Amino acid sequence: MIYNPEMETLSITEKEELQFVRLQETLNRVYNKVKFYKEKFDQNGIKIDDIKSIGDISKLPFTKKQDLRDHYPFGLFAEPIENIVRLHGSSGTSGKPTVVGYTKNDISVWSELIARAIAAAGGSKGDIFHNAYGYGLFTGGLGLHYGAEQLGAAVVPISGGNTERQILAIQDFKPKGLGCTPSYALNIAEKMEDMGLDSRDNSLKYGIFGAEPWSEEMRATIEDMLGIKAVDIYGLSEIMGPGVSIECHVAQDGLHIADDHFLVEVIDPETLEPVEDGKDGELVFTTLTKEALPLIRYRTGDIASITREKCECGRTTARMSRVKGRTDDMIIIRGVNVFPSEMERVLLQIEGLAPHYQIKLVKDGPMDCAELHVEISDELYSGINGDLKSEQVQILERKIKQEIKSACLVSVKTMIGTPKSIPRSEGKAIRIVDLRKSGPVMLS
């Protein structure tokens, strides 16, 4: 089902005309209402009338997360606080938090985009939707909640945590849809098995997973364990929250961007020059309809590519690839750049491993190095009678090192642990633990 056929199947010409009209409205809004943008445009000699097409967007300056932090809390708002109906924000664990405001119309637009997203995932009016995204300042819980209600679904606002309660609700309420991080979906499935349940024996038909990078191999594992269609949803609080883009359940081949509301670019993060469609680079978004916090050319830090080919589902929106990683979570091992999701892709193809891992960054003398912590599967652990020094485990360890070296071009110290030895996630998974500093730094 396509929730809004008029907007989701626009021709290229119709879409670009709409984007340009909305871009002009947004530029006038930020110039007249946001001191930061007025000063930036004036300093760079930018006149709004010089922007004559969406192709001229490259003439405009970038906005970065630090700009939001520098104007904390409300300095980039284009509306006075009396017109703001909701505030969300980041955790602020890596600096000052970013604060995002929404007008009543912003909430209405967001709800519609989430309704589109759930429909693209396979949802429909009358569904029960089990929402295990966290509620609060994090945008995931409330974002999915309002959108599911707009679609006409009944929402179970269970939030994250207390996994046994989650499973009881799934058994009793029989939802069709599940929303949470992919790592927590695995946690739910594993807990079902631990409780003596068949994790595939459930009412679920589709899952909407996001908030952390995940691989095709992780998708296959989740779909197999829960017996569902698993789709990737993308968003970031500064732009709106979840619902900026989502995969359709028909093709599961790229995330459909709501490009009647967001103008997307992909740039080389080093040169800041645009890269061609199909090539990886940093995603940059310009909001086209946001009232409270309109942003111009916002650098997301997320690495992906885009395509503008029509999808088999019938939607004509631009599509982005899965996020390969973030410019700030890329790790450097002996001079080689590696994204954790690249290692995940390799690990989930190796028989004998559970779908959980953690990378610990440590010092080896003056050099940085990485320890890759993985878990042996329950089946293999039982087969070797719990002997982690067995020849089978040694063969497995050599295979992991060889496959990682071949795919990621790095050598890692591999630590194979017992089943359930890596902490499970009730939200975003902790993939990287940086032990090179005075205390551990957790990175999701």
UniProtKB/TrEMBL annotation:
Residue ranges spanning the membrane: these are none
Biological process terms in GO annotation: phenylacetate catabolic process
Family annotation (Pfam families) = AMP-binding, AMP-binding_C_2
Q: Which reaction does it catalyse?
A: 2-phenylacetate + ATP + CoA = phenylacetyl-CoA + AMP + diphosphate
Its EC number is 6.2.1.30
Q: Which UniProt keywords apply?
A: Ligase, Nucleotide-binding
Identify the InterPro entries for this entry.
Adenylate-forming_Reductase, AMP-bd_C_sf, AMP-dep_Lig_C, AMP-dep_synth/lig_dom, ANL_N_sf, PA_CoA_ligase
Residue ranges of every copy of the AMP-dependent synthetase/ligase domain listed in the record: 90-285
Residue ranges of domain AMP-dependent ligase C-terminal in the record: 335-436
One of the entry's Gene Ontology molecular-function terms is: nucleotide binding
Q: Give the similarity note.
A: Belongs to the phenylacetyl-CoA ligase family.
Q: What does this protein do?
A: Catalyzes the activation of phenylacetic acid (PA) to phenylacetyl-CoA (PA-CoA).
State how it assembles.
Answer: Monomer.
What protein name does the entry list?
Answer: Phenylacetate-coenzyme A ligase
Q: Which organism is it from?
A: Siminovitchia fortis
Its lineage reads: Bacteria, Bacillati, Bacillota, Bacilli, Bacillales
